[in-house]
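worker-03 picked up job from queue 'complexes'. Input manifest follows; two sequence lines, order preserved.
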Amino acid sequence: MNIALFLQMAAEACPDRRALTHNDRHYTYAELYAAAKRAAYHFSTANVQFVSLLDVSSPAVPIALMGAAMAGVPYVPLNYRLSEEQLTPLFERISPAYLIAGEGRHDYTFDGWIVQSAEDFLADSLNGEAMEVSWNEDPAAVAVQLFTSGTTGTPKAALLRHEHLVSYILGSVEFMGAMEEEAALVTVPPYHIAGISAVMSNIYACRQIVQLPNFDAAEWLRLCVNESVTSAFVVPTMLTRIIEELEHSTLDPRSLTSLQAIAYGGGKMPVPVIEKALQLFPEVNFTNAYGLTETSSTITLLAPEDHRAAIDHDDAAAHARLGSVGKPLPSVEIEIRDEDGKALGPWEAGEIYVRGPQVSGEYDGRSVLDTEGWFPTRDAGYLDDLGYLFLSGRADDVIVRGGENMSPGEIEDLLHQHPAILDAAAVGIPSEEWGEAVALAVVLARGQSISADEIKAHIREHLRSSRVPEVVHFTSELPYNETGKLLRRVVREWFKDEGH
Amino acid sequence: MCDAEVMIIKIGESENLTCGGVPMAENPGQAEGNPDQMHECLIGKRYVNADETIEVLCVKSGKGSLYYDGEELMTKDTKKLPSSD
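worker-03 finished. Artifact:
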C-alpha cells in the first residue's frame, strides 16, 4: 500500500491524458509518472530523512509528493508565508532534508541537506533517462508530515501514513471516474491537507489539474473559461471574492458553461454567501466538505442534492441544512461527546469525535486516539436527527457565561444575515461577574450603518439575553488565515483591556 | 498469458487467490491459465467474495478472472460520491 500506486495506475490506464496544466503548459500522466520516478531516484540517492517543499503550487508539487512516496521518504510541504524566524525551528525538525524551494529561498546551506530551486528540480525530473523504481509497500510508513498552523503555540507535526491516505482515496474516489474533458482548478496551497488531497484525488480519478498558485478572483474566472474548468475547490473567502468579482465585472456567470461542480471547505461558510452562489450558478453542483489534517482531509459531505433541497423547498429543516457540513463518508463514524466523554444524542452540542481507517490522529509519533480509535477533533458541533453534522466552532472557542455554554457561531450566524453587517466575530472576555462575557467585533457592509445599541437590541430580540455583547468594536476587516479560518486569538487580543 | 496485478486490501485466513486458475505470486512464472476462468479483471475495480472476507484492488488489467478458495470474485459496488477536493 503506497500512494505512488495512484499515479502508476493513472499512467497505466491513460498515459496520454492531460494530468496537469500550469502556466499554459500541459503534462500527461506518462510524463508525470516518469518525472516522479526520476525524482524518486534523486531523493533515494540523497541520503536524507525528509523531502520538503517551500514554494507555491507548481508541477513540482505532484512530482515531489509521488517521488517521495516511491523513495520511501516522508514529504513535508512548508508554508511559504512563514517568516525565517518561524521556519528555522521547523527546518531543525526535518533535518537533513531534500528541500525544493521557490524564488529567492534556495540559498540555504545546511549540513547534509540538498537545496534546489523548484525550477532546477523540475528540469531534473522532466528530463533524462527513464528510471525503473520499485517501492516499499509498508502501509504504516509515513507518507506526509504536515505542520499544523500553530494558532495555539508551537506547530505540531501531524503524521499521515500511506494506509490513511490510501483508505481515504479508495473510500471516496472512483478510479478513472473523470471523463477525458474534465479539469479541476486547484487554488489551495500545497502545504495544506486540501492541497495534498487535491493531487491524489484528481490523479486517481484521472482528472486534469489546472493549477492557480496565487488566488485572484479575476484570474480564477479567466482560467475557468480558458481552460474549460469543470470543477473547483474553494475556501469561503475565495467564494466571497468570486461573487464580488462577478458582481463588479461584465462577465456573465452563465458564460462559465464548462463549470459543473464547486466544492468548498476549510472554514465556516456564511449561509448568505452560499445562498448567493447558488443563485449565481444555478447549474453548478455545490458540495460542502469538512475535514481536518489529522483525518486525511474530508470526513463529511453536504451533497449537491442537499443544497438544492435547501433552496427549492419551503422546508425549514432542509433549509437549515445549508448551514451543515453534511453526513459522514461511508467509512467514517462521527460521535458527539460531552466534557465527561459521554456520547450525546441528536441536537445535543458537544465535541466532535471521529473514527475510521483514514483517521491518523498522530503527532510526532504520539497518537491522540482513544483506546477505541476515536479522534477528538477539538471542533464543537451537533448532529440533527437525520445525521447531518453542524459545526459550532472550536471546542476552545465556546464562551462560558455564568455557567452557560454558548457558541460564538450562533451569534455570528444571526449577524451575518443582517443587511448592515458584512462580517462579525464573537469572543469571550474575562468578566468578574460572569466568568466570561461576550465581546463582538463587527465589520459594516459598504455604505451601511448600525449602532452598538442597535446590534445589542437585535441580538436580544432574536437570541437569549445572555448572548448580548458587553462590548462592540467596529473594524474594517476581521483577521483570517489564508485558508479562511478566523483567527479568534487575534480578535481576543483587541479586547484584552476590556475585561473586568 | 495474463498480466493482471492486484493489491490486497484485506484477506481472510486462506491465501488461495488465483487469477485465470493460476495462483497469484510476487514474481509469477509463465503458466497456462484455465480457459474457463478468463473473464478479465479490470484496473481500478475492487473485487470481493460473497461474505467479503477478501477484498482486492486490481491495479493492472488482465485476461484472467480472480478466484478465492475456488469462488469467483465479483466487483464491489461502491457508492459514488461527489468530488470534494
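worker-03 released lock.
Chain B has no helices and eight strands.
Residues 5-25+34-75 of chain B form one domain.
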